[in-house]
């Protein structure tokens, strides 16, 4: 986890201010009244950048954060409005402000600067007096009004101002309707990943269980057809389209990080371990391959079956027209900035408080945390693990006095035979996969909890997509190892049409990387009848010295398997991996292949035709 933040700091996240025209300080509307550029890009970038700075206690990043925050705090007008004025059809467009509110909330949580509460209070008073016919009517803000709702409730929980509850109701009734049973307000992949949580957020205010069910329904609805793929996401490219459901359809990098954030919000609201497990699926299997291993470039679209990452136009194979598959640090003005939130927000959710004054662990990752439990007794918690590449997770409690509190641990649904030990003694009660184990006892200094999650093979079949299959070992999905040939190109020449960069941005320092396959990829996996995984063998390797396990060279696990080549499965006329072949196509000789974790494979086949012999 720390390595991820360091890679972001040293890579595109930390240096985007040298590249992006949207972060150029001169004439920036987030810094100067009347500036000519001031929409979503600054807050998109800042909400991840700032949390990295405070989490790593990096003073230079903190200082940079304060430049933007201080300007935002100083921008509030007498009527309560703050920041740039963006008007569409005579109405104030508030989408970018929703993101900046999240930046301010994080800043407050680190600093307790009361000016944040004052600004938000005055701004929400301004929102309350805006007539409904002018409120949240633009496309983006209308789809994503749930972000505004979360901020309203966040502020209410700190100030208790009653008018905020009225504003919460106003926000909900003016947001797109994500409660429909069989359709969605729109089919944009980021809107869906981000906005499906809005009804559940409103449920926090009303207690209306139909609102909670609506969020579950949207999550399920999009996946019934477009989500018949591994990695937790759905094949929408930018917009889901009828007929385009194969695993060669992808997801915006924005979609990955927004889905992770939504999952985190959903499990904080509901406590349902389903959302933590889904967040892991996206975080470990889909998101890592959307960026270069050094975090110095990213691509707009990443797919479960992704065998070419060039700068060509693959429309209509994907919904977007242009060079949307190469790793370009100058491109994708939304994802270029919004990618920053993925890992910082994930880390913020590693340790959670519970309503009974205890501690809950829903996501696993090595960390330490200071917590107040019971009657505000401070303890320190240390977690040691290389999860998801390690079956063992160890917690150590540091406390100056014995203290009684409940300690909750999510037991993954795949962890059949999971074990829990306290100070070396086995605990046999309440160890149920897919549930929480709750241990309530008097905890003493140096008490140790050890969890063991045995990993085994499992298979997922995607009936809608030619009954293709994906293979899991523990929480990780495995992809065919394809040798990757990296070719660098000029980032300015290969950027997407709406990209803008600073005049001194150096494409030699920040090149585009195209990735081409240097080995065959068109295989059908072979399973043994009666014992599917008989020919699957796990090869364990040393933990990488650089603490970064998401490259083909550093993965701690590989799987040896048997496969047969499918000669008719080739690139299609748009240059993409062809759609999955029919089950009865001709297959070649039996070969041995290697599978590596999906998140480490920037070229990959993750959804396979299958052969049972």
For the biggest sheet, the summary is: 8 strands, mixed
Which blocks of ≥5 consecutive residues have pLDDT under 50? none
Shape: globular
Radius of gyration: 24 Å
* Number of discrete helical segments: 16
Distance between the termini: 41 Å
**pLDDT averaged residue by residue:** 96
Helix/strand-derived category reads: alpha+beta
Strand fraction band?
15-25%
List keywords for this structure.
613 residues; alpha+beta; Immunoglobulin-like; six-stranded antiparallel β-sheet; 21% strand
Describe this structure in words.
The chain has 613 residues and is of the alpha+beta class. Among the domains are: 352-385 and 392-452, Immunoglobulin-like, CATH 2.60.40; 460-612, no CATH class. The protein is built from 16 helices and 26 strands. The strands form seven sheets. Strands 16, 17, 18, 21, 22, 23, 24 and 26 form an eight-stranded mixed sheet that branches. Strands 8-9-10-15-12-13 form a six-stranded antiparallel sheet, with no helix packed on it. A four-stranded mixed sheet has the order 6-7-11-14, with no helix packed on it. The mean pLDDT is 96.
């Amino acid at each position: 986890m720390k390595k991820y933040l360091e890679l972001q700091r040293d890579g595109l996240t930390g240096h985007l201010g040298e590249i992006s025209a949207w972060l150029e300080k001169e004439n920036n509307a987030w810094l100067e009244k009347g500036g000519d550029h001031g929409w979503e890009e600054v807050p998109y970038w800042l909400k991840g950048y700032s949390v990295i700075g405070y989490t790593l206690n990096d003073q230079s990043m903190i200082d940079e954060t304060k430049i933007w925050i201080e300007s935002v705090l100083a921008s509030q007008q007498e009527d309560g409005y703050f920041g740039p004025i963006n008007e569409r059809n005579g109405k104030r467009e508030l989408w970018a402000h929703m993101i900046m509110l999240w930046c301010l909330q994080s800043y407050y949580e680190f600093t307790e600067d009361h000016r944040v509460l004052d600004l938000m209070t005055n701004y929400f008073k301004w929102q309350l007096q805006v007539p409904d016919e002018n409120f949240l009517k633009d496309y983006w803000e209308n789809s994503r009004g749930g972000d505004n709702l979360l901020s309203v409730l966040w502020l209410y929980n700190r100030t208790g101002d009653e008018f905020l509850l009225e504003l919460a109701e106003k926000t909900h009734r003016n947001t797109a309707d994500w409660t429909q049973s069989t359709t969605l307000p729109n089919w944009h992949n980021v809107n869906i990943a981000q906005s499906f949580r809005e009804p559940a957020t409103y449920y926090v205010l009303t207690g209306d269980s139909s609102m909670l069910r609506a969020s579950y329904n949207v999550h399920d609805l999009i996946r019934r057809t477009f989500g018949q793929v591994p990695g937790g996401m759905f094949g929408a490219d930018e917009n889901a389209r009828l007929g385009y459901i194969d695993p060669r359809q992808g997801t915006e990098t924005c979609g990955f990080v927004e889905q992770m954030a939504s999952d985190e919000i959903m499990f904080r609201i509901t406590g349902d371990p389903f959302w933590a497990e889904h967040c892991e699926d996206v975080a470990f299997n889909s998101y890592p391959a959307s960026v270069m291993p050094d975090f110095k470039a990213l691509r707009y679209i990443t797919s479960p079956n992704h065998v070419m990452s060039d700068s060509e136009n693959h429309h209509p194979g994907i919904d977007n027209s242009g060079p949307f598959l190469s790793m370009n640090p100058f491109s994708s003005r939304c994802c270029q900035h919004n990618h920053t939130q993925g890992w910082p927000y994930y880390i913020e959710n590693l340790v959670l408080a519970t309503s009974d004054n205890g501690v809950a662990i829903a996501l696993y990752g090595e960390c330490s945390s200071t917590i107040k439990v019971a009657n505000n007794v401070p303890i320190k918690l240390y977690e040691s693990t290389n999860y998801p590449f390690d079956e063992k997770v160890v917690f150590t409690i540091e406390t100056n006095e014995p203290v009684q509190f409940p300690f909750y641990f999510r037991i993954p649904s795949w962890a059949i035979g999971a074990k829990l030990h306290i100070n070396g003694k086995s605990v046999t009660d309440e160890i149920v996969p897919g549930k929480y184990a709750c241990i309530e006892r008097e905890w003493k200094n140096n008490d140790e909890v050890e969890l063991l999650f045995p990993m085994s093979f499992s298979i997922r079949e995607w009936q809608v997509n030619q009954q293709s299959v994906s293979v899991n070992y523990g929480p990780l999905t495995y992809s065919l190892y394809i040798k990757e040939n990296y070719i660098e190109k000029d980032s300015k020449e290969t950027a997407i049409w709406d990209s803008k960069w600073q005049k001194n941005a150096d494409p030699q320092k920040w090149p585009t990387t195209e990735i081409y396959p240097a080995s065959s990829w068109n295989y059908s996996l072979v399973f043994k009848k009666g014992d599917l995984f008989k020919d699957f063998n796990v090869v364990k390797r040393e933990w990488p010295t650089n603490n970064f396990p998401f490259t083909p060279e550093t993965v701690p696990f590989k799987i040896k398997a048997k496969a047969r080549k499918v000669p008719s499965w080739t690139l299609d006329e748009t240059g993409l991996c062809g759609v999955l072949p029919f089950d009865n196509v001709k297959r070649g000789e039996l070969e041995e292949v290697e599978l590596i974790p999906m998140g480490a494979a920037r070229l990959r086949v993750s959804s396979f035709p299958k052969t049972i012999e």
